[in-house]
From TrEMBL, chain A:
PANTHER family named in the record: D,D-DIPEPTIDE TRANSPORT SYSTEM PERMEASE PROTEIN DDPC-RELATED, OLIGOPEPTIDE TRANSPORT SYSTEM PERMEASE PROTEIN APPC
Lineage, broadest ranks: Bacteria, Pseudomonadati, Pseudomonadota, Alphaproteobacteria, Hyphomicrobiales
GO cellular component: plasma membrane
Name of this chain's protein: Peptide/nickel transport system permease protein
Family affiliation: Belongs to the binding-protein-dependent transport system permease family.
TrEMBL record, chain B:
Record's protein name: Peptide/nickel transport system permease protein
Chief subcellular location: membrane
GO terms for cellular component: plasma membrane
Residues passing through the membrane, by range: 12-33, 98-121, 133-160, 180-199, 238-264, 284-303
From TrEMBL, chain C:
Subcellular location(s) of the protein: Periplasm
Any one GO BP annotation for this protein: peptide transport
Protein name per Swiss-Prot or TrEMBL: Peptide/nickel transport system substrate-binding protein
Keyword flag Signal: yes
GO cellular component, one term: outer membrane-bounded periplasmic space
Length: 271, 317, 522
């Protein structure tokens, strides 16, 4: 039990750091993240620019901070959207079974069979690149994985004694589902949401890499990283900074996810 | 055995509507994307008449539902059409490229599994100890690195600075195995490193669950050595969820590998697809996505069929 | 699968693996990067820049470009133009042979031409020789085995330049065996210095030296002169990623990179392993306005935008200081780029604000399209956005993939965009590229009836001073209308490994591998 608090502690510390960075950026950044200064292009880190400047002479620290806002918003909204969509359909599929289940599964299989990033790529090209296009596209792409996992949990949970018991004492199907079946899915959902958060941050950088990310001048870590690719030998700091930010965020969310899972997992409590 | 065959038959039958939906989605999705191959072929100096002529010669002037039925009819007969970009027949083109992607993905995931199983098992066994913390930290870090970034850094170090490995190009295994290996080593390592993270975490999590179960306690109480407990009781039972994960990873990677194939300039299926999307090469996009979907469905079926092998509690019925 | 040709491949990889010694310098294969697979080997049919560059190693036309994009005889020994400018008589060179050893005669010119003008072939330049475009060829005859006579309906200054055009496949002459029995294209059997050895989809196109190449002698320039191959084989390797291509050049996995990014020139020059050369190019990168846009139809707003920009600074940033700014549609290397064309508008924020106020502009957003497919287009949008902001112009950048951007360009469905045109080698063509009737050709940005008349006139006149006068007049008109803000005509930078000799970059930009060799020894 030594790791439990460490998990929670380091995880939350990292996320608070990143979140704090984003919140501060809403009000203040050292420089205007979109201000172009062509005489100060690709300057290495210095007292004036702590992490140097990019190919347009924009301050990397300011862009990282502003990027935290964008990346967090996209990631959080996408995960929330995918989880909501997936949980609702998953509950319906797992609980009703029968024909509805079949139909939902066929559709989710079809969506899952599409490579996620490519589905997003297609949807992005159609919808035009903007923040909400990405959220919608990635959300739809990831929802089927949630559906599958929720459905599997529901299927195993609905046969348990306490679910039977809830039904026997006359609780409505709806109450049973939300009170007794859904909590059983929390653990897998938390684990999935955790990794999904990572996927979204990575997918966003992948889409930026292919030229279809959040539009400028708004920086995201993803589009900073893909822009830095061109200057990898000349200005390695450009790519290191967003890369490290992405990794720290994922590390934080993963640690926190582990801690939460250990805590909420009903099986942990039962045994 | 009879029940198993019936089960497989049923499963395969259920994949048909999935594939049909995929086919419909692909076809109409691709045509909703703005821009068309005729414009790309003619470029910035195209006149309206030239465009109209080229579209007609590509059959793009027909109503979309009609184009779809025509295409579907051909697909059912096994003809996926010809690439608009270079006229090559789609099926052989795809199979050719698929070999490359499949080799890399299978080898990378295979190696990753070989590393992840012992690592996850040891981490679970020594839960919360130093070794566990180190393994979890390492796998979490690996999971959180963008693949193309890792690939590019490896490329710079081993290809450019050290000059140990070639930077671009590809040689099929059938022709010159040793040279071929030098070309695919970096993409495989990159992919492996990233998948090791995912699989180790999965393996660890399920092993921890098993370790908590009563029969492990029984086994220990019976005086079995820790090694035997882990190998005989924990590993077989903990592998099932990891196996599912491997299935998901395998199915999904074919699409995700596109970016890596671009970084390493490998002629794989992923790059073929992305290039085709950007070139609006409809027959290739449709063919590739349908093919990827088919692979996904088959991989999942195999995973499900293998499930009873690893988890004695589940039966195929 | 279809991995055949085991022997050749094994031989090639052996060369790759043991770069040192064993093979003679002449037998060594030279590797050149192309950024995408070619579309076909059919000259001027289903083609793009990479296809053109490779096909023109294998086939030659009656005429071809020199380094400065002027036109010179290639398969022809001489070209006689009649007094009235309607009859072109080409005398073929003596002893010409196809790569399969067969002699080339005027009959081959006729049969190639017949296939070109057959609408079923879908030759890129069909309209340019059958009336609606540059010229209308009314007859082509072959009075004897070494003479071909073209007759045009009207005189034009551009007929030879059209035949030489790279996107027309140089109107290359190929032997009948290039086609299968069914009349379908198989592979080019031409007179060029190289011939097709193997095209492996998505990987490479390999050419071998043409043993039957007949050199006309003379200086090697453009696509003409002595084109004797000095290497046994060239492999054009498909490497889509710029960073990977650069890395490959450094590591020696490729020998020639014909299109280096502006940003890389300093590092490459300094590296000591590479030879870099650059030359002014004839493309056009600029900003386009939709003059029918509800907001931008007001010329004052377009003018204000122009005034808000510091064009030299944008160009400096986009090209890393490699290209001079050029605010004219006529490219810098053109002999017609005179004083009027070379003028650069100066930035004037106050004047811009005044114009905006006059036009009643109140910060309505202007959607600006760009693509990352060409990094300079994306970068220019970001720079314009920041600079225009200072004058109070509110630009929203939308990043699209290239095909979508091209679709919006072709249909005229945009307010403003960053765009790049391929090279036009004659000023009349440069103007034609941007001007036209928007109802008929929605892709044209400048719809000015007086301008169109002048452009039409410029194509029929051959006197240089008179043409210059017309172009200067056009320059003034288009600058007053501001339908487009040209930024620069670009720079071609080529880089080769230091053991590669004889490689030269030129304004058209395509790699040319004849006359190029590996330094002996090493």
């Amino acid at each position: 039990m030594i790791r439990q608090p460490a998990n929670l502690l380091i995880g939350s510390a990292l996320l608070i750091f990143i979140g704090g960075m984003a919140i501060i950026a809403l009000f203040w950044t050292p420089y205007d993240p979109a201000a172009i200064k062509l005489i100060a292009r690709l300057k290495p880190p210095s007292a004036q620019f702590w992490l140097g400047t990019d190919e347009f002479g924009r301050d990397v620290v300011s862009r990282l901070m502003a990027g935290a806002v964008q990346s967090m918003t996209v990631a959080i909204l996408t995960v929330v959207f995918a989880i909501t969509l997936g949980t609702i359909t998953g509950l319906i599929a797992g609980y009703t079974r029968g024909l509805v289940d079949r139909i939902l599964m066929v559709f989710s299989d079809a969506l899952l069979a599409f490579p996620g990033t490519l589905l997003a790529l297609g949807l992005m090209v159609i919808s035009g690149p903007n923040k909400y296009g990405i959220i919608l596209a990635l959300g739809i792409a990831y929802a089927p994985s949630v559906l599958r996992i929720v459905r599997a949990s529901v299927l195993s949970a609905r046969e348990r004694e306490y679910v039977e018991a809830s039904r026997v004492i006359g609780n409505s199907e709806f109450t049973t589902m939300f009170r007794h079946v859904l909590p059983n899915c929390t653990a897998p959902i938390v684990v999935l949401a955790t990794s999904m958060f990572g996927w979204v941050v990575l997918a966003e950088s992948g889409l930026s890499f292919l030229g279809l990310g959040v539009p400028p001048p708004a920086p995201t870590w993803g589009n900073m990283l893909s822009a830095a690719r061109t200057y990898i030998e000349k200005a390695p700091w450009l790519g290191l900074a967003p890369g490290i930010c992405i990794s720290l965020t994922l590390l934080g969310i993963n640690l926190l996810g582990d801690a939460l899972r250990d805590r909420f997992d009903p099986r942990t409590e039962q045994r | 055995m009879h029940a198993l065959w019936k089960y497989i038959g049923k499963r395969l039958l259920w994949t048909l509507p999935t594939l049909l939906i995929v086919a419909v989605m692909v076809f109409f999705l691709v045509r909703m994307i703005p821009g068309d191959p005729a414009q790309l072929i003619l470029g910035d100096s195209a006149s309206p008449e030239e465009l109209a002529n080229l579209r007609a010669s590509l059959g793009l002037d027909q109503p979309v539902p009609l184009q779809f039925l025509y295409w579907l009819g051909n697909v059912v007969r096994g003809d996926l059409g010809h690439s608009i970009s270079n006229g090559a027949p789609v099926l052989p083109l795809m199979l050719d490229r698929f070999q490359v992607s499949a080799t890399i993905v299978l080898v990378a995931v295979g190696l990753a599994t070989l590393i992840a199983i012992p690592a996850g098992l040891i981490a679970a066994w020594r839960q919360n100890g130093h070794v566990d913390v180190a393994i979890v930290a390492a796998s979490t870090l690996l999971m959180s690195v963008p693949s193309f970034w890792l690939g590019l850094i490896l490329l710079l170090i081993f290809g450019l600075n050290l000059g140990w490995l070639p930077v671009v190009g590809f040689v099929p295994f059938s022709e010159k195995p040793w040279t071929a290996i030098t070309y695919v080593i970096l993409p495989i390592v990159t992919l492996m490193l990233i998948e090791v993270g995912v699989l180790t975490r999965m393996m660890r999590a399920s092993a921890i669950e098993i370790l908590r179960l009563e029969y492990v306690m029984h086994a220990r109480a019976k005086g079995l050595s820790e090694r035997k407990v882990l190998l005989r009781h924990v590993l077989p039972n903990a592998f099932a969820p990891t196996w599912t994960m491997i299935g998901l990873v395998l199915g999904g990677l074919l699409g995700g590998i596109a970016v890596l194939e671009t970084v390493f300039t490998l002629p794989g299926l992923g790059r073929l697809l992305v290039d085709a999307i950007f070139a609006r090469d409809y027959p290739v996009v449709q063919g590739c996505l349908l093919f990827t979907a088919l692979i996904y469905v088959i991989v999942n079926l195999i995973v499900d069929l293998c499930y009873p092998l690893f988890d004695p509690r589940v039966t195929a019925s | 699968m279809k991995y055949r040709n085991l022997l050749t491949m094994t031989a090639m990889t052996a060369v790759l693996a043991t770069t040192a010694g064993s093979a003679m310098a002449q037998d060594k294969m030279m590797r050149v990067r192309i950024n995408a697979d070619i579309r076909s080997t059919d000259p001027g049919v289903n083609r793009d820049a990479n296809s053109d560059a490779i096909v023109l190693h294998m086939v030659e036309g009656l005429v071809g470009y020199r380094d400065d994009a002027s036109v010179a005889p290639l398969l022809a020994k001489s070209v006689d133009i009649s007094e009235d400018g309607k009859t072109y008589t080409f005398k073929l060179r003596d002893g010409l042979k196809f790569s399969n050893g067969e002699a080339l005669t005027s009959a081959d010119v006729l049969s190639s031409w017949q296939r070109y003008v057959d609408p079923k072939t879908a030759w890129r330049c069909l309209k340019d020789v059958t009336g609606s475009g540059v010229a209308n060829v009314t007859s082509v005859t072959a009075p004897d085995a070494s003479t071909v006579v073209y007759t045009l309906e009207k005189p034009t200054a551009l007929f030879l330049a059209t035949l030489a055009r790279t996107d027309c496949g140089g109107t290359g002459i190929y032997q009948k065996s290039s086609l299968g029995n069914d009349g379908k294209w198989v592979k080019p059997v031409g007179t060029g210095p190289f011939m097709l050895k193997e095209w492996r989809s998505g990987q490479y196109v390999e050419l071998a030296a043409n043993p039957n190449y007949v050199s006309p002698g003379g200086e090697r320039t453009g696509y003409v002169g002595d084109k004797t191959p000095k290497i046994g084989a060239v492999r054009f390797m498909v490497i889509p990623d710029d960073a990977a291509a650069k890395a490959a050049l450094y590591s020696g996995d490729i020998d020639v990179l014909a299109d280096v990014n502006n940003a890389d020139i300093d590092d490459m020059t300094k590296s000591g392993q590479l030879k870099v050369d650059k030359v002014a190019a004839m493309g056009l990168t600029g900003l386009l306005f939709q003059t029918r846009d509800p907001l931008l139809k007001d010329a004052r707003i377009r003018k204000a935008l122009l005034l808000s920009l510091d064009i030299p600074q944008i160009t400096e940033a986009l090209t890393n200081g490699q290209s001079a700014p050029s605010a004219s549609v006529i490219p810098v290397p053109s002999p017609y780029s005179g004083a009027a064309e070379k003028q650069i508008p100066t930035r004037n924020i106050e004047e811009a604000k005044k114009l905006l106020a006059e036009a009643g502009y109140k910060g309505q957003p202007i959607k600006w399209l760009a693509t990352k497919y060409y990094p300079s287009l994306f970068d220019s949008a970001v720079l314009v956005q920041a600079m225009a902001q200072e004058a109070g112009i509110n630009i929203e950048v939308e990043t699209l993939d290239w095909a979508t951007l091209l679709d919006r360009y072709t249909t005229g469905n945009y307010s403003a965009m960053s765009f790049t045109y391929s090279a036009r080698l004659d000023p009349s063509l440069s103007y034609d590229m941007v001007s036209g009737n928007k109802d008929k050709s929605p892709n044209k940005v400048w719809d000015n009836p007086d301008g169109l008349k002048l452009i039409a006139e410029s194509t029929t006149i051959t006197d240089e001073a008179k043409r210059q006068a017309i172009f200067d007049k056009l320059e003034g008109m288009i600058r007053a209308d501001v339908p487009i803000i040209p930024l620069y005509s670009g720079t071609r930078i080529g880089a080769v490994r230091s053991d590669v000799e004889g490689y030269k970059t030129w304004p058209v930009g395509y790699a040319r591998m004849w006359g190029v060799s590996f330094a002996p020894g090493k």
